[in-house]
Amino acid sequence: MSSHYIEAGPVARRLNGLVGRLARHGVSLLGSAELSVRGRKSGRMQRIPVNPHSHGGEQYLVSARGHSQWVRNMRAAGGGELRVGRRVRAFTATEVMGDAEKLPILRAYLKRWGWEVNQYFKGVTAKSSDEEIQAAAADHPVFRIAMVK
């Protein structure tokens, strides 16, 4: 398993904080939401803004920065919550493991969110070849999420 991770700098941390606060108060920027996932060590809910992605009738969370803390927490917790204002949706998460299975999801994600995340994909874009996207897939965990009713 890859340990690829691009840590957020001071500007990105501030921007993430702002986007998270906006989502908490009901303002979603282009579909963003605040993810809450239970910390695997602390047991406390950890929060971070994310871009939930729909593809093929299902919803996904993609970690553009790589194997981050929220990814490790999601693997341990198996789910979390997405919040926009008062609307809180609990979900279960299953990691998509095969690079070939990730390919169409990542291509669609890069097409939708590439303007924001291409810098984390080492030159891979939505227009890259299947082989290039599959080569990058191990560095970018993908979770299929299912809302709990």
Q: What labels would you give this structure?
A:
alpha+beta; 34% helix; seven-stranded antiparallel β-sheet; 28% strand
Describe the protein.
The structure is a single chain. This protein is of the alpha+beta class and 149 residues long. 34% of the residues lie in helices and 28% in strands. It contains four helices and seven strands, in the order αββββαββααβ. It has helices at 10-24, 69-77, 99-117, 130-137, and strands spanning 33-38, 45-50, 53-55, 58-62, 79-84, 87-96, 142-147. β5 (79-84) and β6 (87-96) form a beta hairpin. α3 packs across α4 (130-137). It is globular.
Radius of gyration from the CA trace? 15 Å
Number of helices: 4
N-end to C-end Cα span? 32 Å
| Overall average pLDDT | 93
Largest sheet: 7 strands, antiparallel
SSE string, helices as H and strands as E: HEEEEHEEHHE
Helix content percent band: 25-40%
> From the helix content, strand content and strand pairing, which structural class follows?
alpha+beta
Coarse shape:
globular
Strand content: 25-35%
Biggest sheet: strand arrangement: 2-1-5-6-7-4-3
- What is the total tally of β strands? 7
What low-confidence regions span 5 or more consecutive residues with pLDDT below 50?
none
